[in-house]
Design goal:
This protein has 21 helices and 20 strands. The radius of gyration is 31 Å and the shape is elongated. The protein has a 20-stranded antiparallel β-sheet, sandwiched between helices. By secondary structure, it is of the alpha+beta class. It starts with a helix and ends with a strand. Strand 9 (248-258) and strand 10 (261-270) form a beta hairpin.
C-alpha cells in the first residue's frame, strides 16, 4: 500500500519538474531595451544599493561639503534642476529621491538614448503591491492610456517643455520612460515581437563578450562612438580626456564590493586594433616592485615614447624650462628707459636666461632621453611636512629602466649641463657623492641621481631617490602596460594643509565669510571631496593592452 501511494506522488513530481524545465527562461533585461542607446546601466539589486547610500556617512558628508556647494551652483546642476521641474510638471509627481526609492526594485536597468534631451528608459522588478502603491501609479488617472505589445501603458506630456512621462506595469516589471516610442518598443520586446533590441547591437554584444561570464553588483556598458558625438559628454566629462577616448568604440565596467574593497573591472574596445603589449608587460614588474611602501602616488608606463619621458623629466626637474609666455595678439610695449636699473624695469629677471635660451639648455638632456629607448618609466611622489611642522613639501623620484646599460657619465653630464644653463647662469655645476650611490647637485633647485646598469633614478631629494634605488634588486611583480596607485589616507591631510596655506591670504576666517561665498577650489572644493572619501585608504589601477582592447582592474581599498 505504501508503494502504491508513493508511485503517483513521484509521477506528479516528475511532471511538475518537466513542466518547469519546459517553460521559456525569462529574457535578459538588456534584450528588452530598444536599439539606439548610448549607455546602459544594470544593477543586481538597485534598492539595496540606494538603501546603503542613503544610510551612509558619505552621503551626509557630501551634502554638507564645499564640493556639493560648488556643484549646486554649476551650470550642469542648474540645467538638471530645470529638467527635474519640467518632468515633475509632466508626470504630476516630483522625480525626486523619494520617487526613485519607491521604484527601485531588485533587478533594475536604465538606458540613456539622448543625453541632451534626457531621453531614457528604466525597468525594475517590483512586487505588484509595491508598484500600485507608488505615487506614479496613483496618478495614472491624469494620463492617457495607450497600448503596445500585450500591455497598456500610460503617457503624459507637458506642452510648454515637451517633456514626456510614461510608465507601465507588466508581470513583475515596472517600466518608466521619458519618450513614448521607447516604452512602446520595450513593451513590444516584452511581448516577444520580432523587433530589434539593444542587446543585438554590435557595440553592446562585443563589450559583453569581451567582459566574459559573471554577474556583478553594477554593470555599465557604453557606446563610446555615440557618446563622443554629443556636446554634453565633450563639455561635462570630468576627466577631460575625450580626445584620448576617441580610439575606443565601446566599453564595459563591472563594479562589486568584497572583503573591504570595491573593485572595478573595465574593458575598452578599440575601433582600430593596435599592437598588443601583453608579452612585454612583465618588464614593468621590476619597476613596480621598487615603489616605496609609503609612496603617496606612483605611476608606471611600459615603453613610453622618448618625448613623453623628456617632457616628464623637464617638468619635474626644471619646470621653468618648459613654461610659455601668455598668448597675445598685441605687439609688446617697449619701455624707453635710460638704464636697465630704473624702477620701470623691476619685472626683468636677472637670475634667468630668456625663454629661448632656457629651452636650449635642456636639449642635451632631451636628446639623451629620447635616444635611450626606455623600457619602463616609474614616477613616484610623496609629500612631507618640514621639521618646523608648518610647510608641506612635495618630493618626487623618476626611475627609468632601459634594455642596455646607462652611460652614467653621459647622463650625469646632460643633467648637469641643463642645471648650469637654467640655475647657475653658466657657472659650473658639480656633483657631490653621497651614501648608497646617490649623488646630489645643488643650485637654485636640487637634483639627486643614482645610476647602475639599466637603472637610472632621478629626483629632488636623496631620500626619495634612495627609497626607489635601494629596491631595484627586489623580485619583480606582475607587470602591466600602465599601473598607478594613490594612497588617499596618507596624502589627504598633507594636501589640506598645503592648499590651506596657499589659499590663506585670500580666505577670510569662517566668521567673516559672506553667506554664499564661493569656496576656494583646492583647500575647499577638492579637499572637502577628499574628506567625504576618507574611508578610502588607497586606489590602484592595472592596465593590460591586448591590442584590440584594454583591460583595466581598479581597486579601492577601504580603511577597516
Amino acid at each position: 500500500m505504501k508503494y502504491r501511494i508513493l508511485i503517483p506522488l513521484a509521477a506528479a513530481g516528475l511532471v511538475a519538474l518537466f513542466w518547469a524545465v519546459a517553460q521559456p527562461a525569462p529574457p535578459p533585461m538588456a534584450s528588452l531595451f530598444p536599439p539606439g542607446a548610448a549607455l546602459y546601466l544594470e544593477a543586481k539589486d538597485l534598492g539595496a544599493l540606494l538603501a546603503d547610500w542613503n544610510a551612509s556617512a558619505e552621503k551626509v558628508a557630501w551634502l554638507d561639503s564645499d564640493n556639493y556647494e560648488a556643484f549646486s551652483r554649476s551650470q550642469l546642476f542648474l540645467k538638471l534642476s530645470d529638467a527635474q521641474t519640467q518632468f515633475a510638471t509632466a508626470a504630476g509627481v516630483p522625480p525626486d529621491y523619494a520617487l526613485l526609492t519607491s521604484v527601485a526594485g531588485s533587478g533594475s536597468a536604465l538606458a540613456m538614448y539622448d543625453i541632451g534631451k534626457l531621453e531614457c528608459l528604466y525597468m525594475t522588478k517590483v512586487a505588484s503591491a509595491r508598484a500600485i502603491n507608488t505615487a506614479l501609479w496613483r496618478a495614472r488617472g491624469t494620463y492617457q492610456t495607450r497600448h503596445a505589445g500585450n500591455a497598456d501603458y500610460f503617457v503624459k506630456e507637458d506642452p510648454p517643455s515637451h517633456r514626456v512621462a510614461a510608465f507601465a506595469y507588466v508581470g513583475d516589471t515596472l517600466v518608466l520612460a521619458t519618450k513614448e516610442s521607447l516604452i512602446a518598443g520595450a513593451l513590444q520586446l516584452m511581448a516577444r515581437d520580432s523587433v530589434p533590441s539593444m542587446a543585438s547591437e554590435p557595440w553592446f554584444t562585443s563589450s559583453v563578450q569581451a567582459a566574459g561570464a559573471g554577474q556583478s553588483e553594477l554593470r555599465l556598458v557604453y557606446n563610446m562612438a555615440a557618446l563622443g558625438r554629443t556636446y554634453q559628454f565633450r563639455s561635462h566629462w570630468v576627466q577631460g580626456n575625450v580626445g584620448e577616448l576617441r580610439q575606443f568604440s565601446s566599453g564595459l565596467t563591472d563594479l562589486e564590493s568584497a572583503r573591504g574593497e570595491i573593485r572595478e573591472r573595465r574593458v575598452l574596445l578599440r575601433a582600430t586594433p593596435s599592437a598588443s603589449s601583453e608579452s612585454a608587460e612583465s618588464i614593468a614588474g621590476q619597476a613596480l616592485a621598487a615603489v616605496p611602501d609609503d609612496a603617496g602616488l606612483y605611476r608606471a608606463w611600459l615603453r613610453p615614447s622618448g618625448g613623453q619621458v623628456a617632457a616628464l623629466m623637464e617638468e619635474k626637474l626644471f619646470p621653468a624650462a618648459i613654461s610659455t609666455a601668455p598668448k597675445s595678439k598685441l605687439a609688446p610695449m617697449v619701455a624707453q628707459t635710460a638704464d636697465a636699473g630704473s624702477e620701470i624695469d623691476l619685472e626683468s629677471r636677472i637670475d634667468e636666461q630668456p625663454l629661448g635660451q632656457r629651452n636650449d639648455a635642456v636639449q642635451l638632456l632631451r636628446d639623451a632621453l629620447v635616444a635611450a629607448k626606455i623600457d619602463t618609466m616609474l614616477d613616484v611622489q610623496s609629500t612631507k611636512i618640514d621639521a618646523d611642522r608648518v610647510y608641506v613639501r612635495p618630493h618626487f623620484a623618476i626611475a627609468l629602466l632601459t634594455a642596455a646599460d646607462w652611460n652614467a657619465s653621459a647622463i650625469r653630464a646632460a643633467i648637469g649641463s641643463a642645471a648650469e644653463g637654467l640655475w647657475a647662469q653658466g657657472a659650473a655645476a658639480t656633483w657631490r657623492s653621497g651614501p648608497n650611490g646617490v649623488s646630489e647637485l645643488d643650485g637654485l633647485g636640487k637634483v639627486a641621481m643614482a645610476v647602475q646598469g639599466k637603472w637610472l633614478v632621478v629626483g629632488d631629494s636623496a631620500e626619495m631617490v634612495n627609497a626607489v634605488f635601494s629596491r631595484r634588486n627586489r623580485q619583480a611583480i606582475p607587470g602591466a602596460a600602465y599601473a598607478a596607485g594613490w594612497r588617499h589616507a596618507r596624502e589627504l591631510p598633507n594636501f589640506r594643509r598645503l592648499t590651506t596655506l596657499i589659499d590663506f591670504p585670500q580666505v577670510p576666517a569662517e566668521t567673516e565669510q559672506p553667506a554664499g561665498a564661493e569656496p576656494p577650489f583646492f583647500s575647499g572644493n577638492l579637499a572637502s571631496f577628499g574628506a567625504v572619501l576618507k574611508r578610502v585608504d588607497m586606489a590602484s589601477i592595472i592596465v593590460h593592452d591586448a591590442g584590440t582592447m584594454l583591460r583595466e582592474a581598479v581597486v579601492y581599498r577601504m580603511i577597516p
